[in-house]
Structure formats: structure tokens, C-alpha cells
Design a protein that fits this description.
single chain, alpha/beta, five-stranded parallel sheet, five-stranded antiparallel sheet, globular
Length: about 240
């Protein structure tokens, strides 16, 4: 049984969400505004947050940003707008998935199950630490260091980097990267979203697009990780 925090200022939507989530066997908490959502998330440490974008006071983006600064809990955002801008902003502040209102309860529950399943799997396994040309990525601690300095990546940027580093030299199309990040739990990410977040990731890595150290662009196709990658187990020995 997981604990799911439901954040929406509409009591009817909160009740609908509660019914479906509890029917799936999970415990629910709820909040009607952003301040209460942040306080509850940090105090109760839920396993998942379902978060509406349009909230009184703090909006959903600011709530996600504050939660993500202190927790890696999966965040599924709800938005009434179907355009790409909300997805880009939401992913940038740390959201893991998006559902557009009005939503199908069946689809929403499928996405909730996928996020909870991925969180359980991540908690059960220790992955190899990846190292390449001064870059060290630890999937277990969710930490990235470049030449000894810690980099602050968003969860989406972190998963992009991991996806590329697991298969250095391989050219990934944008669809390949979506599959590498989400597997069969595709949250409807689009090509432009991948490009936006890839651009931000490269800037944080200090990569010059014309002479990249880590991530190269393959024209009309996608991206690849350039240097060879050494894998080490968490104890520090070569994998």
C-alpha cells in the first residue's frame, strides 16, 4: 500500500481521485492549496503526489519546485491546458508525468501505477555508478558530479543523461530517449520537450554544441553520448 497526496482546489476532483486511488488499495492525503500541499508533502513523505497546476496561492509549478528541492517523490501534474508549454515548465521543475483535464480515471490510474511501480523497482536495486571524462553519475544517490563539483539536474535531465550514458556511442532518436526514460509507461512526452531539456542539460554540462565534450548531435536523427563510460558498483570497484 502506498500513500498518495492529492492536491486540487476543487473538492469534487479530490473526492473522485480519492475514490479511485483508495479503490486501488492505497492510502490518500489531500490538500486544497499550495502551502498546505508543500507542508503535507514534506511532513508525511508520500510515495506519490498528484498535483493540479492551477491552485490558489502557490501554483502547482512552485509547489513542485519546493517539493523537489527536498524530495525525489514522483509528481504527476494535472493541467487544464493541452499545449506543450505547461509540460515543458512542469518537467523542468521536477514533475515526472502529466495528465490533461478532463482526464480518464482509467488512464490516470494507469499512470499512477506506472510511477509507483518504477519507484518500487528503483528502491529495490543498486545500479552501477557511471563515469566518463570527469563526469560521475550515481543512479542510487541521484547525484551528478563534474570535475568534482555537484551539478543540480532536474529529474528529467538526470534520466536523459542516464539513458545516454548507459549506451555510449549509440545514436538515440527522440523517441528512443522517451523509451529509455519511461519504457512502456510513455507519458506523452513530445520531441520538442526532449530538445528543450537536452539543451538545458548540455548547458549544465558546459557542452559547446559545436565542439561537445559529452553529448553530440546527429543531424536529423538525435543525440549520442561521446566518451567511453566506465561502470563501477556502488562499493567503488569496477563492474
Amino acid at each position: 500500500m502506498a500513500t498518495v497526496l492529492l492536491v486540487d482546489d476543487d473538492p469534487k476532483i479530490r473526492e473522485l481521485l480519492r475514490l479511485y486511488v483508495e479503490r486501488d488499495g492505497h492510502r490518500t492525503l489531500d490538500a486544497a492549496d499550495g502551502e498546505v500541499a508543500v507542508t503535507t508533502a514534506l511532513r508525511a513523505r508520500p510515495d506519490l503526489v498528484v498535483l493540479d497546476v492551477m491552485l490558489p496561492g502557490l501554483d502547482g509549478f512552485e509547489v513542485a519546485h519546493r517539493i523537489r528541492a527536498a524530495s525525489d517523490v514522483p509528481i504527476l501534474m494535472l493541467t487544464a491546458r493541452s499545449g506543450d508549454s505547461d509540460k515543458v515548465v512542469g518537467l523542468d521543475v521536477g514533475a515526472d508525468d502529466y495528465v490533461v483535464k478532463p482526464f480518464s480515471p482509467r488512464e490516470l490510474m494507469a499512470r499512477i501505477r506506472a510511477l509507483l511501480r518504477r519507484r518500487r523497482l528503483d528502491a529495490q536495486r543498486d545500479e552501477a555508478v557511471l563515469e566518463a571524462d570527469g563526469l560521475q553519475v550515481d543512479p542510487n544517490a541521484v547525484e551528478v558530479r563534474l570535475d568534482g563539483a555537484t551539478l543540480g539536474l532536474t529529474p528529467f535531465e538526470f534520466r536523459l543523461l542516464i539513458g545516454l550514458m548507459r549506451r555510449p556511442g549509440r545514436v538515440f532518436s527522440r523517441d528512443d530517449l522517451i523509451d529509455a526514460i519511461h519504457g512502456h509507461d510513455d507519458p506523452g512526452i513530445i520531441d520538442r520537450t526532449i530538445d528543450v531539456h537536452m539543451g538545458r542539460l548540455r548547458r549544465k554540462l558546459g557542452d559547446d554544441a559545436t565542439d561537445p565534450r559529452f553529448i553530440g548531435t546527429v543531424r536529423t536523427i538525435g543525440y549520442k553520448f561521446i566518451p567511453p563510460v566506465e561502470k563501477r558498483d556502488p562499493s567503488g570497484t569496477a563492474a
